[in-house]
Structures are given as structure tokens and as C-alpha cells.
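hiii, so i know i said id send this last week but things got crazy w the move. better late than never?? heres the sequnce for the chain we talked about at the cafe, plus the structure i predicted for it. fair warning i was half asleep when i ran it
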Amino acid sequence: MRKVRHRREEEDSTHQGGWLFADSFLALMVIFLATISFVPSLGGGLTGTGNIGNIAGGNYVKGLNIAYDKFDAAQITKDIDSFIAGEKLPRSSKVLFAKIVGGYSAKTESENEGKFRALLFSAEITKAQIAYFDGAKIDLGASNLLKANQIVLRLTLSPQ
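okay and structure toks below
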């Protein structure tokens, strides 16, 4: 008599593959969000009004924060020169990105007044033709943590 063979049922887990991918993606997103949430604000430069790194907002490792009460092209150039020398960056370094934050008094002015001061400061930089700012991307902002006449430059430098 012939033996009847019974087919063995194997487990098929291919339908679980989608869930594995989704769970892995979720885990990676949690890790990503956790790492970007606690990036410290770094930067050197002159800090005339306290924690300018938090006011200007940034997490660049080689960022330069400088506070000014009035526009002075020679002083800006001197500050960038000293930063480049202190960080041992190449002399050909240029400003890659500049965040210009204008101060305003929240009691008497709107945020737009601070942005307008930042806009005027960026126009003065362009008018003075400071070589470091050739081709730089400029972003404007405002903060009521600054004095109404104060401007903060947050610069990221890059070698040419």
C-alpha cells in the first residue's frame, strides 16, 4: 500500500514585511527627532548683550555672532578677520550665510520694525561692498530680546 504524503504547511511571513518596514521607519524618525531637538547653540564672537546665540537662532559649529549698535564696515571687516585668524580658517573664507536680526521694543513697536532695521543693515553691507559678503545668502529676523537700536549678525563662513 502506498503511503499518503501530507503536505507540510510552512509559515509565510512575507505579509509582515510591510509592518517591519513601517516600524523601522518610525524608530528612525524618533531617533532623528530626538537628536535635532537638543542641539546646543554654538558660536564665538562678541556677545555684548548676553546669549546672542539663542537670540539669533542657530546651531552652526563655526558660526560667528556679533552685536552692533550702529553700522561700521571697518569694524565688521575687523571682527571677521579676527574670527578667521582665531579659528585658523583659510584667508580666502567668505560669508556663506548671514542671519541679520534687528532689535525692537515690544512695548512700543512691532516685530516688523526689527526686521526693517535688519533690512537697512543688510542694505548698508551691500552698499559698503564688504568683500566677505560677496555671494552670501542673507536672512532677516527680529527679536525683542535685543535693544531697539541693536543688530546681531550670525555668520557662517566657508572657504572659497
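btw Residues 39-61 have pLDDT under 50 and may be disordered. thought thatd interest u
miss u guys!!
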